[in-house]
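Exercise 7. Given the components listed, write out the predicted structure of the assembled complex. Treat all entries as one system.
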Amino acid sequence: MYPISEKLIDLAQQISGHIYPNEVEVHWGILIVVYPYLTGLVAGAFILASLVKVFNVKEVQPVYRLALLTALSFLIIAPLPLLLHLGHPERSYEIFLNPNFTSAMAMFGFVYAWYLMVVLLLEIWFTYRRDIIIWSQNEKPLMRWIHRVISLFSKDVSDAGLAFDKKVVKAITIIGIPSAFLLHGYVGFIFGSIKANPWWSSVLMPIVFLFSAIVSGIALVILLYMIITPLRKEKIEMGCLDKMSSYLFYAVIVDFSLELLDFIHRLYESEESIRILSELVMNKLFVSLGVIQVLLGMLLPLAIMICVKLFKFEEELRKLLYFVSVILIQLGIFATRWNVVIGGQMFSKSFRGLTAYKMELTGLEGLFVTLILLILPFIVLTILIKVLPPWDESRPVRAEAA
Amino acid sequence: MERRKFFEKCLTLLAEVGILSTVTGRASAKTTDYDPSKHHYGMGIQIDKCIGCGRCMEACKEENNVPKDPFFFRTWVERYVIKKDGDVLVQNIDPSAERTNAAVNEKEILRSFFVPKLCNQCENPPCVQVCPVGATFKTEDGVILVDEKRCIGCRYCIQACPYGARYLHPETETADKCTFCYHRITKGLLPACVEVCPTQARIFGDTKSGASPLGRFKRMNKLHVLKPFLNTEPKVTYSGLDGEVR
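Answer.
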């Protein structure tokens, strides 16, 4: 007996109704939950950063660079869960070399490379170029060399050069917003285009993914800003925090409306799958969907934010409420990803039975690996912040004087 | 006399060489000169003939190195019991287990039948569409195969298959499924499940050949396929398929 079969024997006990015999194994586990969660954070953080540049929102300027670095650190880690999940990770290069152009998943290589190379790295490089050059002039040898290499040995800090940087950043941002939409919309399409699975197959899926991505990305940047600023012994700028929370509020409303529309549409159409999907929601997903995703992750933060908008709370209370909201929202969005990925495999395609999923503690598809994958982006971010400080006061003023 | 014997011996020798050469010639033609463009395979399943013995499942596992554990199947048989009150009970047949009917009182049964299932070798296969590296592909003769040396084990095809016909082989860590016993049919043999079926519930054939059992099956029966609304255009067709079957 294969080791996987021993686990499947346990799972088989928890099956209700009839499922096809190959369906006992849940094929996409927790790692595939983590993947859309991470890419969602990338897209959301980037879109927040883009708002600053494209719409010239001055209030959010203090987190512009932090949002960019957050997007980059999460993007670097995002393919890891995919890679770990593959049966043959050593063949993963095939997806770049021999892509099947009818496969949504095969587009991963192109979308990822485009987003990483063309959008994020370029925007960060042009944003930081001037600062890196100036930093490298007065630093200890190690950091000096790191900065010189990162600046690609560029030395031009003339006005014309800086004006060019500005123009390029603006241009990349304008390309970047549709790219961010593409990145996460595409992840939604991977699920939304599976006609065999009525829980996934929905034209709204890419759009729902996108807006939930924006929600989670903004919430993450708010959370990071609220944690890092006091650690740096600086004062949180309430203008910035209020503005970001305002964006978050509108994004949550759009996200909630879309998900509600999806729900009502399914219920109203009442197709063949409606019975098993109702069973799924009432049984397997009751806590993760009803309680965590909708109640705690959406309605409660929405209520809090409405209260903040309606009543003029004092600063400290506002901060506390924002903090609670963004943590709840992160929890809710993670549950959203769980409900899509795991939920979509909790019922049989015979529509006659429910399957079961049990997350392990250890092993590649286990809780520990998941936690490591969720912590890794923050470690990358810490390193990036050390190398490329995103704070206004870290920016050298000398060039401005010149 | 001696001259006559000599001629007789020469003739038999010539005859023997001739027979041998045609035999070996044929054998090599079957293995190397197979032209997929001249074939297009399909299967017909007669629900009313299936007795649920499960020999097809056993033969398939034996023939194709399918893991013996009860979570991996290239083909399986479902037993439908439709009760008078409208309830539908479905079980997957386990050929090794003792057959019982204890779950349902016979008087409550309205109708009951077995449904053999396998990869439908779709004309529009969703699995081929979604495979990111083209490891799953459709051959010229219409069979969907998996190249286990190219499959990266992402399992997208398993998600995309509406019929639950695919699994991840625990040894190769690649997707696996029914191939219509491609190694057999290209030699002119029948798929293992068809060969062992005691009631000829499964009929295999080449739609490009003129007269065939499959052709007759298609002419003589009202046919249906599984989940036609998904537009996968299965090449496995059923006669006597009940509306409750999914």
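Discussion: The domain at 37-239 of chain B is CATH 3.30.70.20 (Alpha-Beta Plaits). The two ends of chain B are 78 Å apart (CA to CA).
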